[in-house]
Each structure stands twice: as structure tokens, then as C-alpha cells.
Amino acid sequence: MTRPVGYYVHHQGAGHWQRAVALARALGALGRPCTLIGTFAGLDISDAPGPVLDLPDDRLDRDFDGRDGAAERPDCFHYVPLDHPGIRRRMGRIAAWAVESDPAMMIVDVSAEVALFARLLSVPSLVVRLSGTRTDPAHLAAFRAASRLLAPFPEALDGGDVPDWVRAKTLYGGFLGTAPTTAAPDEDGRIVVVFGRGGEGGDGPALAQAAAAVPDRDWHVLGPVTGLDAGPTNLHLHGWVADVRPHLAPASLVIGGAGDGLVTAVASLGKRFLCLPEPRAYDEQEAKAVALERLGAAIVHRGWPTPSAWPRLVAQGLALDPDLVRALADPDALPRTAEAIEALCREVG
Which of 26, 181, 201, 319 is most buried by its number of CB atoms within 10 A? Predict the structure, then answer.
């Protein structure tokens, strides 16, 4: 019987779940069963292609930011609050699953604690490494404990202060979960602005000023926007949408942060991109923005532009060659990565 893989999904929203589902399905096609593991409250997990192990919540409150703030916390951890029954039950269920299932590997997306726990359980691990400068003791300990690391982005976008040994240990999977389009979609000249759940959302008056500064184009805004009672007629607010791709397809220019989901969608659709990187831990978005700018795949501007800057930035964005960002999306990324994981399962097993 083929030994299964466990895929641990951290508390980071739908994008991580979608990546897990895509890889689990691709591994299943290769005959390698995959159990998705994590706390899935609030997520639609109906598309899970196999078993799901739902874990007790380990958060202290709804405003959980990934850290417990304890001054005495060991350096190899990010979050280990004491006397938390949810964490005890959580780790107990992972351990029980490992004993019962005898997994070939655990994919950890993303948790230093679970990566180290897998090592303690004598289970080989493939730890997902996100962008940015992740050289704190906890990340480095997780990277050392892993058999290999998986970057869910192309090697060309790897940026930040990354030690050579970390890069050498990394499997660059490319953008996973979304196949690129084979032909450029028809565009109608619109500008699409995207605000994700991880940021502060859009400032309504600032968006109205931007649309007024470029009145010859329709502006369509996806995501939360506050403070706008009325705006120019070329500004259209759509609120939160589950799938941004149908809205991005007709865009001549996309504006937004350098989050994984948006960068993946922009590359897969081959969209001209004005990137406004948002502050994130470990300079995650800044690292991607620098790489995009270096490759000529995006125009990058730090902070929200002033009204007078918009005509110039939009003109620069529209002058981009969309083939440069489209080239970052490998149509074989998902099957290639699944095959590499399957080979690694056989190697470490």
C-alpha cells in the first residue's frame, strides 16, 4: 500500500487551501494519497479531493497575528502559548494521525512549530517557504528540520536576504493551483484595482481622486473600500469577490499589492501590472515587488500615489510588455511539482 502524504495548511486563508487542494489532487493522480490537515473553520472545504483532518483552533482570539508575544518563548518557535488546551489537542491529533497512517512525508504550509513537530515525530517534511527575508531563528530552525523546501513561486521571483543553503534546499514549484491562459483575453481598456483580505482595504476618497485623474478609463475596484459616499462616474465598486479572475480578464491594467494570490492571477492571465507593495512581515511583498520590477514585469510604486502621479503611472503600466509577466507562469508547474514531491517521497522513504 502506498504511504500517504499529510498536507498541513496554516491559518492563512483561502489561497493556502487552494494550493493544498491543487497539490493534493495532483498527487492523487500519481497514486499518492494526501490528507489535508488544519483548522478549516470559515473555509469552504467541499472541494477537498481526499481525507481531511480538521484540528482544534490554536488561536488565542480572533485578532491572532501569528505570534504569542511571550518574552521567554524559545527562539525556534513563533507561537507557543502555555496552558492552551487547543494546542494540546491539535498536536495530539497530528501525532495520532502520523502513528496510524505512517506517512511518507508531511508538507507544511506554513508553520515553524509543525515543521519541528514533524521532525520530532520522525516524519520527513517538505516545508513551504514564502517570499521575503525569513532569517529569524524560528524560520531557520524549520528550514533545517525539513528534508526539502518548497517555494510556491518561480525562482526568478525569489528575493530578500536568503541564505545560500536555503536556496540550495528549495524546490521552486512556480505558481501552483492556477493554470495560465493559452491566449491573451480580450481587453476593454478598464483598470482593475484589487484589495485583498490581508490589508487595510481601499480608501474611498483616494480611489475617487485616482479615477478622476484618469477619466478616460473605467476603474473597477475589487475588495473592501471605506469612506466613499459618491465618486466619479467611471469608478465602480464591486466589494469582495470570491474569484477575481473573471474581473481581471478584460483589464488593460491591474493595480494592487504583491500578495501571492494577485501576483499568481496577474501572471497566469498575462496582465499589465502596477504593483503597490503593502507592508508585510519579513518584507514578503517588497521582495516580490523588487523582483517583478527587476524583470520588467511590473511598474512598482511604494505607497498610494498622489492624484497628480496617476496619469504617469497608468501610462507606464499600459506600456509594459505583458509577455514578461506571462512568462513567469509555467503551465506545467503543478504536475512538475507533484512529480518532484512523489520522487522525494520515494527517496526519503
Answer: 26
Q: Which residues have C-beta within 8 Å of that of residue 319, sequence separation ≥ 6? A: none
Percent of residues, the chain, with pLDDT higher than 70:
95
C-alpha cell at 205: 476618497
Please report the sign of the dihedral spanned by the C-alpha atoms of residue 158, residue 161, residue 166, residue 167.
positive
Distance CA 131, CA 114 (A): 19
Which amino acid type is present at position 267? A
Nine cell digits for residue 141: 530552525
> In whole angstroms, how far apart are CA 133 and each of 160, 161, 166, 254, 287?
5, 5, 11, 26, 8
Cell of 103: 506517512
Q: What is the pLDDT of residue 42?
A: 77
Write the burial class of residue 216 (CB in 10 Å: 0-12 exposed, 13-18 middle, 19+ buried): exposed
Alpha helices in 102-161 (DSSP H): 112-120, 137-145
DSSP 51-81: -EEE-----SSTT--S----TT--TT-S---
Confidence band for 34, pLDDT divided at 50, 70 and 90: very high
Q: Distance between CA 167 and CA 136 in Å, rounded?
A: 16
Residue 284 amino acid letter: E
